Amino acid sequence: MPTGRVIASHSNLYEVQAEGAVYRCRPRGRFKLEGARVLAGDLVTFRETDAGEGYIEAIEPRRTELKRPPVANVDQAVVVFTLRQPARNYPLVDRFLVLAESQGLAVTLCLNKCDLLSEEEVAEAVRHYGRAGYAVIPTSAKRSMNIDVLRQALAGKVTVLAGQSGVGKSTLLNQVVPGAELVTGELSRKVQRGIHTTRHVRLLATGGGLVADTPGFTHVELDDMPLRDLAGYFPEFHKYEGKCRFAGCLHDQEPDCAVKEAVAAGAIDPERHQHYLDFLAEAREAEKHRF
Question: What is the pLDDT of residue 42?
Fold first, then answer.
């Protein structure tokens, strides 16, 4: 039986690409009984039934898996965010960064809609995440700013492009992937949120790689995040590992904490540390209900 990659998911129907052709496949009924779920990006074995159609028989082991957005076997994440339309939402950005770090993905940030921002605002955002160790690509889909830089970052890799609804992911992809013709939406004036124009995950070919166009999100749950793993998903904490007084320090209420000292000294951004503490509190609460 042939093996292919799932390049799009539509409810219980999947597009599987294999040897230059695309097959419309459904999973076998036993998948539901086993609690298995097919994701865009999955490598699957399938059986062709009619011309261009078939059934997915097996899912190969995944290298990586994200629940929000639901996609598998990606190499990197490009997190798109804005400071205006919709408004700056660093807590939401940091939630997705934690999820990407937990899967061992390389991460790049893309600050879109720079045509709405001053040079100082762009520089502040680049510094904010640069201090945490992340590269930030400032873009403007409206002005085609740094589209080539973004295209180069996607080349040769399987990438998930993710971000809050309304930040302009589909508009960026229409420029990065010629002929994509993705539907774009306007920002809701009433609530200043993006309208969900992408309903399903789809992998698009670009520069020898694949990029996943994903639905936007307004919240990301971290309720299944292991409490003691969380600090490891903040790269700026790594250099202080082993320097706290107590082994297994959570960088919260403990005395002589090297991370908290770094925050006080300005070496770690206090807003990022506060987001870590907020996520830690959520993880503690979730852990109480898990046992």
Answer: 96
